[in-house]
Amino acid sequence: MITFRPMREDEYPAYLHYFVADYAQEMAANFRLSIEDSLARAKQEIADYLPEGVNTPGHILLCAIAKEDNSDRHVGYLWYKPDSAMKTVFIYDFHILNAYQGQGMGKLTLQAFEHAMRDEGFKQVSLRVAGDNQRARHVYEAVGFNVTGFNMSKSLGE
Known about the structure:
Layout: E1 2-6, H1 12-31, H2 35-49, E2 60-68, E3 71-83, E4 88-96, H3 105-119, E5 124-127, H4 134-142
Parallel strand pairs: 4-5
Antiparallel strand pairs: 1-2, 2-3, 3-4
């Protein structure tokens, strides 16, 4: 069983460490940026989106917890922003820790999140995934996410 708890301030640095590196790699691969430029951009974007870290109004950062055999294991992170007026939720980031990947934790976590959001009255969950991230696309599609569009870009050179 998967449950969620708010990310604590003392956990935020570890989350940033994972997120900035991962997001920078994605930007470098998809936007043909240098790793240095990607790292700078990733750091700036997270500072812009989460200026108060875990206490940024309107954004919710969670830790996914697997409960079994009377123990709790922190298995991943989920960052989202609810829109109560539209009854929608946008997932900014979802990550299963490396030690728990390939065990079905991604699907279980997304299903638990879906149930929690439905119970809170939300009608839709959306997210963005990099086109070349086949593993993530597989997990999202396996739990019922559908492609709603494509982001495209073209480099104009220097």
